[in-house]
Design a protein that fits this description.
The protein is of the alpha/beta class. Helices cover about 55% and strands about 10% of the residues. The protein contains 20 helices and twelve strands. Helix 14 runs parallel beside helix 15 (about 380-390) and helix 17 runs antiparallel to helix 18.
Length: about 550
């Protein structure tokens, strides 16, 4: 009898524990559901483009306590992260990753990965450090590619990217080299090509083996132009210039100093501020003129090849220390887009850098801030991407493939890069129209639910729909014309559209926060794209 009582007490204890656990689980479930409901409504107030129907169905199942509640909660949290439908998602395919692509199978594997994270632009390092991925009459081919696919793997890379709907732009590292790149030029007996510091050294002094070719030397320019022209013969979608600058502490090649003296300058008097300013402008002119030559050659070979460049973060630093005046390039309409290497370790720093980098050319060129994956984990990566998406920039660029570890790839696939996005660099006119049309669609779906005045909501939807349609005027294709050739008709039409943007700001400012902030940001994104088209339409 005693043993039966003890057994009954044990059973009762187990039942009580189960009941308590169930009760706690129910309470937790209610708390989580309530929190998710608040997040969902906040997302609606922020006009986020989410699949609200699916989220609400999953949330109802969580409330009802289905068997896989935890999985449904995870799925809701995933779906509450917005994945923009219109944005450029670029990634640099670095030289380390490139050297691993020694078979078609490895190329397919990488392209499958990049396709799975929904990038739409690959900036692939196919020339740098004096070596090319492809067979070249100017440069030594990288050994990793010499023995495969009859010595040319580049067409396979391009084809596999295109098969997945990803643009493939060939990156050329122009003037800068490290220890791997110094030797090929030494072997060619081209020591006189190397730029010099003020004391005559050809190493920058920043790292043990960093050097630069001098953009002043005619043979250097011919060499790199030859490489670019070879690249332009392939079925690339664009040419991307990297290291298109001086090395820090360089610019004192004997030929440069002689030319400066012939122009009336005095390189021995650079302690004088006016003389220094004159000398810095003199240096920068050789980089800018080289970009002009590249544009001319690429345009002649294939007008559909987009031309872009990776530039140093901070215009003043780039101009003074590196001779890289990328605002001048934008003023002169030399590039289709610019990528800033504004790599930071925190989203707070990234927030400020985006503003300082984009503001000098916000109406002159499409531009994308860069995120250094090497310096951050997947959580900080998500934060920085979300910061960029909440700024009036049309996309972002990730550096680089070798740092895209499984954790970061998974975060992209399940979060901010979950859905396919339309790139903004190939057809900015269409991208701007889509951004405006999507804003109107979201107001139509969410406006009344989040408390926007019905009359204001209707007026905004009508105005946004009209603007989206108006943007679709008959412009010359952005990706198949000389950007420096203007059009008076386009100039006048785009001028009128920009006035419509200006007019829309006032009623959008009447929206309640946070809808107002999001709507104005979307308007600014589209407006910047139209402003760039307006800049290119001007007849100089």
């Amino acid at each position: 009898m005693k043993s039966k009582v003890i057994l009954s007490l044990r059973v009762l204890s187990v039942l009580i524990i189960i009941l308590l656990a169930t009760s706690l689980s129910f309470a937790d479930r209610e708390n989580v559901a309530e929190s998710l409901e608040k997040q969902l409504f906040r997302a609606k107030q922020e006009l986020k483009d989410l699949d609200y129907k699916v989220i609400e169905e999953l949330l109802q199942e969580v409330k009802e306590g289905s068997n896989d509640t935890e999985e449904k909660i995870k799925e809701i949290k995933r779906l509450l992260i917005e994945s923009l439908k219109v944005e450029t998602r670029a990634i640099w395919l670095d030289s380390v990753s490139m050297d691993l692509l020694t078979s078609k199978e490895k190329i397919v594997e990488l392209m499958d990965l990049l396709s799975s994270v929904k990038v739409n632009l690959i900036l692939a390092d196919i020339f740098g450090n004096g070596h090319s991925v492809f067979p070249s009459q100017y440069a030594k081919q990288r050994e990793a590619f010499y023995y495969f696919a009859k010595g040319d793997m580049l067409p396979i890379m391009i084809e596999e990217a295109h098969n997945r709907g990803i643009e493939f732009h060939g990156l050329a590292s122009i003037f800068g080299v490290d220890s791997k790149g110094i030797q090929p030029f030494m072997d060619m007996d081209k020591l006189d090509w190397f730029d010099r510091t003020v004391d005559g050294s050809f190493l920058t002094g920043l790292t043990e083996f960093e050097a630069f070719m001098s953009p002043v030397v005619p043979e250097v320019r011919e060499f790199f132009l030859g490489i670019i022209k070879e690249m332009a013969q392939y079925d690339l979608d664009g040419i991307h210039l990297d290291y298109i600058r001086y090395g820090k502490n360089l610019g004192y090649h004997p030929l440069a100093l002689d030319l400066y003296r012939k122009e009336g300058g005095n390189p021995d008097n650079l302690a004088n501020p006016k003389e220094l300013e004159h000398f810095l402008a003199f240096k920068a002119s050789f980089i800018t003129s080289f970009v002009e030559e590249v544009k001319k050659e690429v345009q002649a070979i294939n007008p559909r090849l987009l031309l872009s460049a990776a530039v140093a973060s901070g215009l003043n630093y780039a101009k003074r220390e590196l001779g890289q005046d990328w605002k001048d390039w934008a003023d002169k309409k030399l590039l289709h887009f610019i990528c800033y290497m504004c790599y930071t370790t925190t989203s707070d720093l990234y927030y400020g850098v985006i503003d300082s980098d984009t503001s000098p050319i916000s109406s002159l060129s499409i531009s994308f801030p860069g995120i250094g994956l090497y310096a951050i984990d997947e959580f900080e990566m998500e934060r920085q991407l979300e910061v960029g998406q909440n700024k009036p920039v049309a996309g972002q660029a990730l550096f680089s493939t070798i740092h895209l570890n499984p954790q970061k790839a998974e975060a992209l696939k399940n979060g901010v890069y979950r859905d396919i996005a339309i790139p903004t660099f190939r057809d900015p006119q269409y991208a701007a129209s889509r951004i405006i049309a999507d804003l109107g669609r979201r107001l139509e779906i969410l406006g009344l639910e989040i408390g926007i005045d019905p009359k204001l909501n209707t007026e905004l939807i009508e105005s946004l729909t009209a603007l989206a349609e108006k943007i679709f005027l008959p412009l010359r294709p952005f990706d198949n014309r000389d950007l420096q050739v203007g059009s008076e008709a386009e100039y006048e039409a785009l001028k009128a559209i920009l006035q419509d943007f200006k007019t829309l700001k006032k009623p959008l400012s009447k929206l309640p926060l946070p809808a107002r902030k999001r709507a104005l940001n979307d308007l600014a994104k589209a407006e910047r794209l139209v402003k760039v088209l307006f800049h290119y339409s001007k007849i100089e």
